[in-house]
Amino acid sequence: MLSLCFLPVMQIFAFIWKNMSSLLHGIKMLSSGCWPFAAPTTTPVQKPQVQDPERIIPTSVNYHFTRQCNYKCGFCFHTAKTSFVLPMEEAKKGLVMLKVAGMEKINFSGGEPFLQDRGNFVGKLVEYCKKELKLPSVSIVSNGSLITEKWFQLYGEHLDILAVSCDSFIEEVNKLIGRGQGKKNHVEKLMKIRKWCHDYNVAFKINSVINRYNVDEDMTKEIEMINPIRWKVFQCLIIDGENCGDDALRHAETFVISDEEFRGFLDRHKHMKCLVPESNQQMRDSYLILDEYMRFLDCRNGRKEPSRSILDVGVEDAIKFSGFDEKMFLKRGGKYVWSKADLKLDW
Ligand code: SF4
């Protein structure tokens, strides 16, 4: 008899226990005023945000955190005009601001990114962007000369794409261009890095600048063998104040090729699926470039005019002076599969 009376009470307790989390959620909703019948609270109602159609979202950003480099390419268009590098904590602060403003892809560039603290500076930024900020794509552009296997062991898992610059597979031509240091062989190092990318599951990209010295070269055989996920082919670009003009550190006038010559190079390699060409016009306005002070650089007038730093005025204000052309960014295929999780690397 006693047990019969006791049964419904046990069932009630069991029911409460089983549904504890939903009940707690309900109580929380009531207290926060989300419950449909709850008394109105004093919390002001948030108005829906009206999106400014002119607002530029920094989806993909190139952060040139250093201008220092160990190479001396004659056409370099981001030269060592300062030796400044932001302290790590300041750089991280800026990266958080960019993420909040909508950044999905960050590319670290220079100068030579592996020069600072023997690659640990860029390694820590890569790790931070992937682990803490959870950016879908984190990449680096490097000349490759200072990269070691140890670096891949420490930071490789956080890196989606590594792009290495290579303008020629003829070592003599690389030397003429200025891509080299002492007796180091640029092409041999490129091959090593390609293997490490395979071993540590990092997508591998090649960037080539087509100029007076390599415009007649046929790179088909080597590119097919290396099989990069993308082969970016740029037309040598003149930027006043960087590689031309009185205040410039380089004078690239002798490296320049005509649009027709550039088309000739592209025609020779047009059967290659990984080829992504970029003419001067496409290149000039379709990148969001941040310099070593985290200032956007506007290249529209043929020279790099800086905004104020995002650390001083915020992303939204600074980006208005970036000269960024989103249509051109999309036209040049700036948005592609850029996370290694989606790339399904089959090497
Ligand atoms: S490797 Fe890149 S940053 Fe260095 S000199 Fe050459 S083009 Fe400039």
Key words describing this protein structure:
alpha/beta, binds iron/sulfur cluster, 8-stranded parallel sheet, globular, single chain, 347 residues, 10 strands, two-stranded antiparallel sheet, TIM Barrel, 14 helices, disordered N terminus
- From the alpha carbons, calculate the radius of gyration and give it in angstroms: 26 Å
The termini sit apart by: 73 Å
Question: Given the structure, what is the number of helices?
Answer: 14
Uncertain runs are 1-7, 18-48
| Structural domain count | 1
- CATH architectural label: Alpha-Beta Barrel
Kindly name the structural category.
alpha/beta
Q: Any idea of the CATH class?
A: Alpha Beta
The portion of residues forming beta strands comes to 5-15%
Estimate the mean pLDDT confidence. Answer: 84
In CATH, the homologous superfamily goes by the name Aldolase class I
Helix content: 25-40%
Q: What spatial form do the alpha-carbon principal axes imply?
A: globular
Number of strands: 10
Lateral strand order in the biggest sheet: 7-6-5-4-3-2-1-8
Largest sheet: 8 strands, parallel
Structural summary, described in words:
The protein is α/β, with parallel strands linked by helices. The chain has one domain (60-331): Aldolase class I (TIM Barrel, Alpha-Beta Barrel). The chain has 14 helices and 10 strands. The protein has an 8-stranded parallel beta sheet with strand order 7-6-5-4-3-2-1-8. It has a two-stranded antiparallel ribbon with strand order 9-10. The chain is globular. Belongs to the radical SAM superfamily. RSAD2 family.
